[in-house]
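Notebook entry, cofactor series.
This is the third protein in the set we're modelling with a bound small molecule. For this one the ligand is zinc ion. I'm keeping the input format identical across the series so the outputs can be compared line by line later. Sequence and SMILES below, as received.
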Amino acid sequence: MSEEEKKHEGCCGGHHEDGHCCSGHDHGHDEHHECCGRGHEHGDDHECCGGHGHEGGNEGGCCGNHGHEGSCCCGHHHHTPSDGEDQVRMFVVGQLQTNCYAYISQGECLVVDPGASGVGIAKHLEDVRIKSIVATHGHGDHVGGVLSLQRVTGARFMMHEADVELASHAGEASEQGRTYDNNAPAPDQLLCEGDVIELGTARFRVIEAPGHTPGGIVLLGEGTALGLAFVGDTLFKGSCGRTDLAGGSHELMMQTLARLKELVPAHTTLLCGHGDITTMEDELAYNPWLQDGVVSDGIH
Ligand SMILES: [Zn+2]
Ligand SMILES: [Zn+2]
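Returned structure with ligand:
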């Protein structure tokens, strides 16, 4: 397994047999289950993520066609969208197991990083109005499903200008020879530092986060989304995004991580682009890339 594949494994790499779900903690599928940092109880008919049916041999991935009612992995999603509480749903999509998130507030939905399976994602969100689609950056595993999701929903697509070119070729073979669903369509809106995306009673403030790519962004929740941040491939549990791909910059990544330490409060839950969800508090304590004086060239 390549280093990259290793890095990207994690959320749901077929490990349901032994009872692990997204955050690596054990659970039975029909009992209390804390998948993604925001506790919730599951019914017994739950497919968390990823294409590896369990409990009755369901097939298809998270946003594929496994035919479940309800949703996937993350957050407050066992309430109906009309009960007033915001929800996060997570779908793990594509070869690199990208975490695609849907944030729902007052029946309005923001989809972050539909990396593949746009039509399948839309099927899982038929109960809400998908208002916006945001790409945290322009890599194919984060934008490959934008075109199909947008065709089905008519949602507004937003990303940072500096990754538009990258995203417009995202469906072509990558440096690793991978291919993704589609090139991204031209964005309807360009995002930059300080922009605020609103939906329902939630807001997300854009923090520019170059390093992994030139146009990477972090979305920091405010209003009813306070305490959440979508961090894309900038920050992972115990790691940060690789900087050796086209447009990557180790120097910028280090500057970005230093800014995030200032701007993202410790209590914030970090919704990462791959693998486990974590918190800023844990990363400040354990992530070697966030320790003072880190100068390593790293292994990612
Ligand atoms: Zn990436
Ligand atoms: Zn990625």
